[in-house]
Amino acid sequence: MSISRRDFNKLLVSGVAGSAFGLFGMTGTSFAAGGAKKHVVVVGGGFGGAATAKYLRKLDPSLAVTLIEPKAAYVTCPFSNWVLGGLKTMKDITHTYAALHAKHGVNVIADRVVAVDPAKGTVKLSGGKTIGYDRLVVSPGIDFKFDAIPGYSQKIAESKIPHAWQAGPQTLLLQRQLHAMKNGGTVVICPPDNPFRCPPGPYERASLVAHYLKANKPKSKIIILDAKEKFSKQGLFTKGWERLYPGMIEWRSATGGGKVLKLDADKMTLETDLGAVKGDVINIIPAQKAGKIAFDAGLTNEKGWCPINPSSFESTIHKGIHIVGDACVAGAMPKSGFAASSQGKVAAAAIVNLLRGQEPAPPSLVNTCYSLIGPKYGVSVAGVYQLSATGIVDIPGSGGLTPADASDDQLEQEALFAEGWYTNICKDIWG
Amino acid sequence: MLPKKNVMLGLVFAVVPLFQASSTVIAADAPAPAATPAAVVAPAAPPAPAPITDPVKLRERGQILALSCSGCHGTDGKSASIIPSIYGKTTGYIESALRDFKSGARMSTVMSRHAKGYTDDEIHLIAEYFGNLSKKKN
Fold it and tell me: Which residues pair with A118 in a beta bridge?
């Protein structure tokens, strides 16, 4: 505690320390009288981390909250497919941390955490500073297993065959390649096996790339070489593709020639059990694991994800550290931006409880994932979750997909709600 | 598990058992009283919560449940898009809408799928939370 406060005061000169004494007196018996605020450090400013930071301050304004994120602005993976489809711009999906600081009193540090010391309760920044915490939240997102496909590498991803599964320069690279491709070209999309970020995402991508191609390069084709036998919202996507892009999108299951054995980047070919597939544009979405800092901090299990206590999202490996978002193991919840934000709010509430010496209140967890198949053709999957003996599970009878027989009117309404959802969730997190 | 007494005066910090007790929440400027409840993390599969009767706890439960709504409807239920705001509506209106979504009496896209995830009591708490929030700020 003393380290935490000392370092914190050293770091934050004004505006945050100070008037907390009186507030602490009201929060319960567990606070021995101290002069400083409790300090929560949040690592990572995506859906999970930024939501946690904002809601920590909202639920308990007496807390000092520091968000550490190297990027000046966050580009969301959700709606990056809309950019590829020509329906949104990069500016539309880029969000700064200005409001978190100005409106919600979050201290934002543009730096990267290079080490976590769970025993001392400190994080070290690449700039050399060490910051103490009373509770730490790690929301590192994903990292890629580039070596899962022989011939693929980070270098090739950055120059020639993008993953575009972290939005930003990768999205722009894929967009440039699609724009440069000839009419009649072939786009190959290679989704990974489960678990991975945004389960319906690769198929929304195929849909919106098809939307772009249909309008601009109608002789072109999309082949999906899948590492799986089935995929999220499969029936809805398949029906939508038949209706909007007949003959344009071909999906191959893992055993139906979809499993990629090897990449030859020079020849732009992918080797499969049923022969080589050549692409004019290739988009490999590699298998994934928790973001790097989760490994460096020793928060991961043998599968490369972070096990947590689902009532608080506190690590089962290191006490005092909470993990939210794609990196954590959250049972039935998908790795989605929405799920990350829901977990962030639950973690924030639990941290407020824990810092007052109380048990975390029972969580309420939820997810909604919209996918756009065409500009007026939206589908969704929803989930409401509870805790059970096996962890986070769906509440029976709730959630589920857009009905298979949804009318055109309903599909259009879902497309409109998809856009409304994006506006609101981004404002809920970064606004 | 209570924290060890080596938290005194905040001098000894890097002690592993301290963290195993998850006791970093205890401010250390004064010795922690023996009766201080340790912030022990709940087991992986906590039992179903007992029915809540305390009005403060009920309001907190309503707030936790209501946080789920903000991911689509906006912070405090204030929408900045075509998705309807929850903020500004009365408890009775919100409760009736959610119950109708749940039963299917009211047409929706995702709302019936969401509403089915909540008991009638939870729906009441959510409605009351937003209803009171609107009253308070108006």
Answer: none
CA distance A190 to A229: 13
State both tokens at A319.
Answer: 């006490």
Superfamily name with CATH number, domain B55-137: Cytochrome c-like domain (1.10.760.10)
Nearest CA among A155, A208, A213 for reference residue A180 = A213
- Edge-to-edge strand list for the sheet holding A281-284: A249-252, A221-225, A186-190, A281-284
> A182: buried, middle or exposed (CB in 10 Å: 19+, 13-18, 0-12)?
exposed
Q: Domain A2-143+289-358 is in which class?
A: alpha beta
What order of strands is seen across the sheet that includes strand A122-125? A113-117, A122-125, A130-132
Burial per residue of A191-212, b for 16 or more beta-carbon CB atoms within 10 angstroms, e otherwise: bbeebbbbbbbbbbbbbbbbbb
Using an 8 Å Cβ cutoff, are A310 and A331 in contact?
yes
Which residue, among A409, A383, A380, A378, has the nearest Cα to A395 in the 3D structure? A383
Query: How far, in Å, CA of A421 to CA of A113, rounded?
Result: 31
Asked if A3 is an interface residue toward chain B (Cβ–Cβ < 8 A), one would say yes
Chain centroid to CA B67: 7
Dump pLDDT digits (tens) for B43-92.
444 555 567 889 999 999 999 999 999 999 999 999 999 999 999 999 99
Select the residue of B20, B64, B113 nearest A398 (Cβ to Cβ). B113
What is the dotted CATH code of the domain comprising A146-286?
3.50.50.60
What tens digit of pLDDT does each residue of B23-51 get? 333 333 333 333 434 444 444 445 555 67
> Within the 59-118 window of chain B, which residues sit less than 8 Å (CB to CB) from chain A?
60-61, 64-65, 67-68, 70-75, 79-83, 109-110, 113-114, 116-118
Write out pLDDT tens, residues A103-156. Answer: 999 999 999 999 999 999 999 999 999 999 999 999 999 999 999 999 999 999
- Nearest to residue A388, comparing CAs of B31, B120, B48? B48
